[in-house]
Structure prediction request, 116 residues.
Amino acid sequence: MNFIGVEEVDFAKGKGLVPVVAQEAVTGRILMLAYANREALERTMNTGFAHYFSRRRGRLWRKGEDSGHVQRVKKVRVDCDGDSLVYVVEQTGPACHTGEESCFYRGVKVRKQKKP
Prediction:
């Protein structure tokens, strides 16, 4: 695996933010999608716990700071363009604020395609 520095992550494209997918380390299950700015990524790297930037609250937050459902980060992966991240985590408790294990617990109905 190749590694890059935090300074090489492209925060500019997303006006200071990059999307972050949290993935459970053992199962590979996608837990949630959030956003990080440079400070959130640096805190994640320095503490080993997932930090994000809340667009709604307009501030940095550590996952689980209120609920106790923390994410211990095992790896951070970056995509080929350097503008999206994956936090590979050990999740404590549910990841979703609704109490579900994953924020992706619902599906979207797909319409049947008409034959051409």
